[in-house]
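Many introductory courses stop at the sequence. We go one step further.
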Amino acid sequence: MCLKAKILLIIGSTIGLVGCIKDDNFDIVPVLDFEEYTVYRNIENIVDSAVFKFLFTDGDGDLGSLDSTEFNCFLIYEEKNGDSIGTFPEISPREYSLPNLTPNAQDKNIEGSISLILKPAPIYNISSDSAYRYTCYVIDRAGNKSNTITSGWTNK
């Protein structure tokens, strides 16, 4: 193989490899994307628990708390009554403390998946047969509030 062909092969391979390097630049405000809501029933077919799962990206790596007593992820219960959507003031949002997701990381652009376990049973208003859903948002350590995501409507 001649020298010119070898040089072109090396340059072509280098360009190909550099093109494979993933260089994400996410927004510093966390972005959520709903993935799934799954309800689990016990042996008597009664709703026992559920999992609310979502994807996230964060451009400055400050999602999650340094102190496990600080809540930074909020899940709000809503019901559909005809054409209106209702929340219940007596039902507080479920609050979660996400751990620090970048304790010693060099790359502050982070992405991943979070599953929130809802136990006890996620259905609060058993006196109606209205459909229900959950909305969710997170707040990072800088105080940036993410977009709000919503599960689909689930029949009781």
